[in-house]
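Run log, item B.
One chain of 370 residues. Sequence copied directly from the ordering sheet:
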Amino acid sequence: MAIDREAKESSGKALPTEDVLIRVEGQVGRLTLCRPHALNALSHEMALQIEAALLDWQTNDAVSMVLIDAQGEKAFCAGGDVAVLYTQGVAGDIESGRQFWRDEYRLNAIIVHYPKPYVAVMDGITMGGGVGISAHGSHRIVTERSVLAMPECSIGLVPDVGGTHLLSQSPEHLGEYFALTGARMDASTALFAGFADYYVPVARLHDLKRALIESGDVRVIDDFNEVPPTNSTLAADAQAINAVFGADTLATVLSDLGQLEQDWALSAAKKISRSSPIALALTFDLVRAARSEPGIEKALIREYRFVSRAMESCDILEGIRAALIDKDRNPSWKHGSIAQVSHVLIDQLKDPAPDGDVQFTSTQEYERTK
């Protein structure tokens, strides 16, 4: 049973579970991920527990805001628990994966539309599913330990959990760059790319959380907000990145990228070359679609149409095997290059999901108040 120090000190009621600690302290509904040994990977049960707490707190007048953080110094949440998805997939259990994604995506939409401030402390590694339960929040905090990324293409998946929605909102065409390369963001870059709002040094996090609990006023974050000690490593290359990744087709992006010798371009080309051609092709289209047809629900529906078919028709099981199971880092993708991915297949992956498109709760009717 995981109880952190702040919970022990609180007079509020704590509802501990094995993997997530849910309680109210002062006027703050608190969620703490408690799987530091697994980089706080998000399980299906954790997603359901977080959703239940949020639905309860949204109409509870004693709760003025939500604060989500995690145990451990290394990660906020490194992503969804894809090792479980792999086990289910190789056993032929496709429906369990689909149900996880349906429930997770519903949670992502709830966070986007949450009617109370949702404060996320993205201290440490924050990737994939971890982005989905943090970067959709109204008040997003990074630290000097923060490392954000959407590296799904490297395991045969697409940036999901509303990731294409977030990426489409990054300046110009940085979204395509981050989506296709899975490049990591430090605190400064996360702020620059629109994935975070505040920088708070680790040494001040405890005092910030205490101030939020004591005041119930989200505006106290401003008192702790600082300028990151280093500039974004991406900012200097942003103009060149936008020029390349703003091309009309993925083939043109890759062609233009291959003609450059700058460090950022060589690194980007290398990362892309290691990823699933199917995932890359669809990811490019999904980020563009999220920009032309905005809205979190629309993005999640498009993402779900892919993931609902991913275990049977795409590269995700092979990608997870190579990265996390056998760890040989040598996936055998279904296609040798993006050019070999047919337009027919891409169109099929955009069709309504075999089990029906993901549905959302009435929480989306609420308007967020910051």
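Observations after the first pass:
- The chain has one domain: 5-360.
- Residues 94-112 form the longest helix (19 residues).
Flagged for discussion on Thursday.
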